[in-house]
What does this fold into?
Amino acid sequence: MTTPVMGQQAPKATKSAGLGLGALIALTVGSMIGGGIFSLPGDMAGSAAPGPVMIGWLITGVGMLALALVFQSLANKRPDVDGGVYGYAREGFGPFVGFTSAWGYWLSAWIGNVAYLVLLFSTASVFFPAFEGGNSLPAIIGASVLVWLVHFLVLRGVREAAGVNTIVTIAKVVPIVLFVVVAATAFKAGVFTADFWGAMVKIDDAGLGSSMDQIKNMMMLTVWVFIGIEGAAVFSSRARNRSDVGKATVLSFVGVLALLMLVNLLSFGVMAQAKLAGLEAPSMGHVLADIVGPWGLKFVALGLIVSLLGALLSWTLLCAEILDVPSREGVLPAFLSRQNAHGAPAGALWMTNLCIQALLVYTYFDDSKYLGLVYLATSLILLPYLWSALFHLKETFKTGQSPQLVDILVGVFATVYALWLVYAGGLIYLLVTGLAYLIGLPLYLKARAEKGQPMLTKADMFMVGLLVVLAIGAIVKFQSGALSLNG
It folds into this structure.
């Protein structure tokens, strides 16, 4: 097979050769189930007691279901829009907002991959102590090798990589289901209700605060474990049938929500909260080891490694795809849409993995930790979710149409939830988002110049001014030490 001339577009896969429902579900589930669920017992116990956790999951369940239904509805109503969160933002609010959505989502995705790599090699230290911490020199070398192995796998073609992802997704669910079954048999109601609202428990000699504080504290973690719910929508242009995009989104959400809640809540009935909060990652493995013995930790560690390998592949695919579509539409520079002979977005893939490599090196010198990277990645995806919810509302009240009550409720719930997430994330991470978006502005301006289009409208200039203010605030916070990646 001959290689296209540099810059020449390889043809898109035909619908008959596109991604089916099973592959779309595997991509979505594989994106959501990464490392978060395996560390959920300890991470959540450090933020909230069982009562606030249950309220938080109720809020998350309703909010994320609304977002899942937003993506399902938009996939059915607007099958002409490609690129998921990017496409909806651009179609609804213009090229510059589309750029912020694509750029923020891409940043979130590849920073999340760095978090996965840190956790993967930290977990591998169960078997190879040299990897302890996940950012030792041997760990960084191992992570770098893995990044480029996945890179060249995806260069072989998106459909082929998605096939591998399906197998890995099935394998990663097995240890989670086993944990749920074993933890259910060891569950003790007295342990679960001992300090139901967290009034007495101390974590690092500090209380958990009010129930509202605890709910806010757990919100970023609940969003993190659900990031990827839009995975099928991002791959909508490669789906064999557009109707499968919505089905894959909702089915994946229901299955993953059930697993997350069971893992989290059952753990509170196995160990006291203070003990849970002190567990090292993967805390699920330590809980299982407390029930069945030392082999439980090694079993979960193996499952987590498989899970993270699958998530790394899923998110590498998503990273490349979210840059590919906007670059073809003139919102990002044309080199990012360059495809190779296998139809893989090579330009976007190279830029993504070079950035991952750079941040991996930074984590070695900065001693960056998993949770710090998680919070940063999560904050960057909040506005893309908000744009999608607002676009759904805009479509619902489109002139000449009679809005359906279900569509109104879905749009309102999704929008309110997205706004709540921005609030719960806190001012510091909103400032970081502004800085991150501003850094990508030259790429947007380059793309506009390539198309001979006006650089910025008056509305765009207002938004850029707002980003500058947020960026200055973020720089001040970094310099004062109020914000770092150490987690």
The first helix runs from residue 21 to 32. The CA atoms of residues 428 and 474 lie 7 Å apart. Confidence is low (pLDDT under 50) at residues 1-15.
